[in-house]
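Exercise 3.2. Students should predict the tertiary structure of the chain below and write it as structure tokens, then compare their answer with the key that follows.

Predict this chain's 3D structure.
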Amino acid sequence: MIVTASDTHRAIDAVWRIESARLIAGLVRIVRDVGVAEELAQDALVIALEKWPESGVPDNPGAWLMATAKHRAIDLLRRNERFARKLEVLGHELELDGGQQVAGGPDFEAVLDGDIEDDLLRLVFTACHPVLSTEARVALTLRLLGGLTTEEIARAFLVAESTVAQRIVRAKKTLAAKRVPFEVPQGAELADRLSSVLEVIYLVFNEGYSATAGDDLMRPALCEEALRLGRVVAELMPREPEVHGLVALLEIQASRSAARTGPSGEPVLLLEQNRARWNPLLIRRGFAALERAVSLGGPLGPYALQAAIAASHARARTPEETDWARIAELYERLARLVPSPVVELNRSVALSMAYGPAVGLGLADALVSEPSLKEYHLLPSVRGDLLAKLGRLDEARAEFERAASLTRNGRERTLLLDRADTCAAGAGPGPGGTDTRADAHPDGPDAHPDGPAAAPARPADTR
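Answer key:
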């Protein structure tokens, strides 16, 4: 079999995606600078691109890259004029003999050896440090931990490549200027810092699951990357219930991906989805993650509660079997834990499905004056659906049109305008006063005015 240069380059790309995070994490522990560590890792990649097409891909390419990067790091430290300061930082890791430096200088090889999984966890907390803006945390995490290029990140979020590049550069400079320690936080600080990590993963999934702008409802690559990152953090922090809660939520939500769009990419609402297309493996993984979260004890956190809501949908073999009363109760618990108008909007839909549209509309109407929902297209979308179910079609049409004017996603806009046209044509709700299409909005978690940790922004898991 002839291996071409293009085959080798594809192999290198695959290796980089798998190994780059661990490589950078191991280097940050030594050089104490995220930017420098990434440069060293990139140097190793360049050397691989030069040598592997001729020598072939090594049996253990990750170890080859690590060894190459180690030697580059050693060269850097040895010629660094600030060696003494570096030595102080690394002193506890160096081999000393009776308080005296070992002959021949410090053993940099020993310094560079360490537990890569510990380093990877430190890198997660560094890239997601609250000192950085949300946009910077997302971009830096996808770059360092996801191995995505600046171009790929920009394309995924529909922003200019130069904008993403600036965010990443500024983030690295901020981490260096603030002297953010390369460590896993302990004690009381851990909860806040972990919340920041989970928020970043959640935001990445959100944008992939229900794109805020553009012509596509979903960007599957982002969903896959968020799932991968979530699973990595769950392996690194197996005793943290909310980590497993988030993974459970994402696994179950992702299980519906294939059923959420039609042949032309049009949105398919939850009650119309072919549930045979829901991915049973992802559902089982989600259930297992939720069980782990529960088994660790204590009250369920926001992500675990959202996962329990998603699990309620996944357990229903048909739309009619959905336990909407249970879902409404879970939203009530979530609202007590993290008060939010978005949670209340979700709860209004669940209440409408459990107890009738009038009950849900009463709660949704109370949110109209909420400042944070003023430009939130899902509020008029929910109200339009509930008004249509009550036969108030003119009011429903106006709400759907307002929702369409607020969304930046082309697929959602088309769906909402179709709902408005249906109301204008005088079509009422489905049999028995229940609209068989449910409400006109997606079902996934998404970014929203109150922040992703507060609640899923897409009401009632209805798509």
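Discussion points: Residues 155 and 390 are 42 Å apart (CA to CA). The radius of gyration is 25 Å.
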